[in-house]
Amino acid sequence: MAAATAATLALTALAALAGTAAPAAASGPPPTPAPPAALAAVPAATAASAPGGRAAPAAPASPTLPRPTGPYATGRDTLFLTDHARPDPWVPAAGPRQLLVSLHYPARPGSGGDPVPYMTTEEARLMLAQRGLEDVVPADVLGATRAHARNAARPAPGRFPLVLLSPGFGTPRATLTGLAEELASRGYVVATADHPYESTGTELPDGRVLTCAACDRVAAQPDDAARREVLASVATGRAADFSFLLDRLTGPHPAWRHARRIDPHRVGMAGHSIGGNAAASTMAADRRVDAGVNMDGTFFAPMPAEGLDGRPFLMLGTDPGHGPGAGDTSWDDGWDRLNGWKRWLTVRDSGHFTFTDTPEIGEQLGIEDPDPEATLSAARSTTITRSYVTAFFDRSLRGRPARLLNGPTPANPEVLFQNP
To answer: Which Gene Ontology molecular function entries are recorded, alphabetically (predicted)?
Structure first.
């Protein structure tokens, strides 16, 4: 099965990931309809498709991510790590499990080289092909999306909390770049991982390109229950990935040259879609993670019955899809099991990919979100995601007041506080 087709089928199988599932029957969780794919867009009309056979327009300019708002400049390094204790769960013949990790960090102003690339051209090509956009957006245009972190910049002095980020299923780590840069600009070290064989394409430093074998596995399952079981293993497998990553960042022989800038006693994790499920699974498996955020992800791997040992957790999702009593009952169950400080926020007019870079990139490329409920502007999507996630980590890892999390505010009328 071609990688793009398998990824499409796998994404179609992810019911509640989009937060648009039908109401649950009394017998259990609903089947999951297709979520809107990131950038799986309705392209704006082009000259090539207009009557009269006019010439196709020039290729669009590469998008630019919104500038981070914090006081720090940002740097970025990349790590390629091998866990010799575990075979790859999707392709055991490939050998040990490997991770490709972007590290964003507070940097000294004016240091470092050029801004780093958003993703490689091949990663962009595979992502566009999976979304059916290969003839709409050139791969080099998407790959050259302009971010703001500078390569190999000198780190700012001091020690900083660490935030781990995990992307959605079938989605590259690049889609969380804007959030990573924002957190780094506000004084966090941020480690965003690509989980091999769980994305449309991951290009390794040696030139190998790994496509989505996990998508093949999901697509091959005979029914929804079997698909959910595989997706649960994605979340728990990522928990093992992040425990290994923590060892390599905070252990006695760290893999990162600036590891001394990390405060190992202040660690949080956030994820989008299944990455949000992975945040809870990582907290359940590894006591070193002090706080977590799930951005619109179904808990395929359930929240532990005993909760998370009183550690704080934020659930940030679409409205109404991830509201109380909506189609994704895993959020109701997870909420009841959380036994520490917690918030359940939903965002009006949002879509599954509101919490990623997709709205900003799609808007600049003239690509409309196919989800009719996702009418929130790119600017508001970015502001809400950055503001609430940062406020949560400021409160949980730094002990700072976070009035934004106390209740509704006139400045953010789209954000609803749920208290079932």
So the answer is: 1-alkyl-2-acetylglycerophosphocholine esterase activity
